[in-house]
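Sequence only, no structure available. Ideas?
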Amino acid sequence: MTETIQQTKKIGGSLMVRIPKELVTLQGIREGEYVQISVQKMRKDHFGTIPKLIPFTKEDRLHSKHE
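Reply:
I predicted one. Tokens follow.
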């Protein structure tokens, strides 16, 4: 099984996800074929979303507890 993570997009009253070209080629999927899709909601991970945020130090944590 090949996996991908895709963002949903609203089309009318439904949500749509796309199958990337690389996955289509790898699996040999053609228009009109049936495919089996397993759906699992992803947890949000904000790691790396604020590029210039420096890590907290032990001293920072001690100050925040006492303020």
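Residues 1-41 form one domain.
Hope that gets you unstuck.
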